[in-house]
Specification:
Helices cover 47% and strands 15% of the residues. The protein has 396 residues and is α/β, with parallel strands linked by helices. The chain has a 7-stranded parallel β-sheet with strand order 4-3-2-1-5-6-7, sandwiched between helices. Strands 9-8-10-11 form a 4-stranded mixed β-sheet, with helices on one face. Helix 16 packs across helix 17. The chain starts with a strand and ends with a helix. The structure holds nicotinamide-adenine-dinucleotide (NAD) and magnesium ion.
Amino acid sequence: MHKPQLLTILGATGSIGVSTLDVVARHPDRYRVLALTAHGQLDRLVEQCIVHRPRYAVLAEPARLPELASRLAAAGCGEIETLAGIEALEYVACLPEVDAVMAAIVGAAGMRPTLAAARAGKRILLANKETLVMAGQLFMDAARDGGATLLPIDSEHNAIYQCLPQPFSDAAEQGVRRILLTASGGPFRRFSQAELATVTPAQAVKHPNWSMGRKISVDSASLMNKGLEVIEARWLFDLAPERIKVVVHPQSVIHSMVEYVDGSVLAQLGNPDMRTPIAYGLAWPERIEAGVAPLDLFDIAQLNFEAPDLDRFPCLALAFEALQLGGAAPAVLNAANEVAVDAFLAGELDFVGIARVNAATLRGLARDFDAASLESLTAADAAARQMARSLLRLAV
Ligand code: NAD
Ligand code: MG
C-alpha cells in the first residue's frame, strides 16, 4: 500500500489540469490534492475544490479572492485556505509536504512557480513548455541543483522519455542518433497560402486529434507548437538541434520516436489522450490505469508520414532560428508569439500575421538579451511583448 502522494496542480482549471484531476480521481488511494490554482475560471475552481478538498485554492490575481472565499464557505469548504498572486503560486509549488507539482499553467506566466518547484527539488510533471522555451538552461540547472525529478507531460516528450535508455544522460554515448518529433500538422495541413490568410480563430482552435486549451491549439495550427517543442526537447534531453527532426504524422498515434545508431527506431503509440502521459508522470516508474481507451490498430489501419512545409508554416523554422541565435532568442520568440496569438484570437491579426510578428520581433531583439539570469529573460520577455504590440499597431 502506498502512502498517498500530495499534489499541487498549477493551472487546475485548464485542459491539462482537468485531465490530471480525472486521473487522480481514479486513484484516491495513491494521490491527494493539496493545492489547486487557477486564473479566472472561478466556477470550475470552486467545483474542483468541492470534489477534491485541497488545503489551498489559489488565484493568479487577487481581484476575485473575496468572492472565492465566500463561495467556498457557502459550499461547505470554509476550511480551504484561499490565496492569490504570483508569490502564492510559488508558495504552493514549494510546500515541504508536496510530493509532485503538475505545471499546467499556459504561457510565460507558468515560469516562476515551475522554477520554484525545480529549486525546491520537487517531482515536476512538466506540461508548461513555455518555461523551458524561455529559460531552458536556467530551469534545467535549477532542477539539477535542487534535485528535482522532471517528467515530461507534453505527449511527444513523454513518448521520447519512454523510448530513451534509462537513466538517460548523453545521446552520443548511449547510441541515440536523433529523435523524431511527430506533429499532426494541425487543422490547416492541406491549406494553401491564400487559404491560410483567411482562417478564423474558430477554425484554428478546432484541432483534428486533440482537445486542448485555445493558445496551444492555435500554436498547433501554425506549427509554432512544434517549434516550441523542438526547443523543449533541446533542453529536456540536452540535444543539439540537428539531432531533432520533425515528422508530420496526421493520425497522432505515434507520439514520437527515438532513432538509435544501430538503425533501431523506438516509438511510443497510443490514442491521442493526455491522460496517458499524465498517468505516466504521476505513477512513474510504475504504471496506472488512466481511463484511456485501448488503441485499436485495425480501426486506425494506416499511419502516414510527411515532411513539414516550412514555407506555409514558417513558425517551425523560427524555432530552429531562435536556437541558432541562442541566448534569450527563444524567450523573445515565445513572448512575441503569446502577443500574436492573443491578437489573432481577438480578431486583431490574421493567421499568417502570427508568423510575421514572431519573425520581426525575433530578428529585432534576439541579440539584445542574454539568458544568464531570470532578470535578463524577464526583460527580454517584456521587450518582445512591447515590440510585438507595436508591430500589431503597424499592421492595422
Ligand atoms: P488551458 O488554457 O486550458 O489552461 C491553462 C491554465 O492556466 C488554466 O488553469 C488557467 O486558469 C491558468 N492560467 C492562465 N493564465 C494564467 C496566468 N496568467 N497565471 C496563472 N495561471 C494562469 O491550457 P492547457 O491546454 O491546459 O495547457 C497548459 C500547458 O500545457 C501549456 O503550456 C501547454 O503548452 C501545455 N500542453 C498542453 C497540452 C494539452 O493537450 N492541452 C498538451 C501538451 C502541452
Ligand atoms: Mg505536444
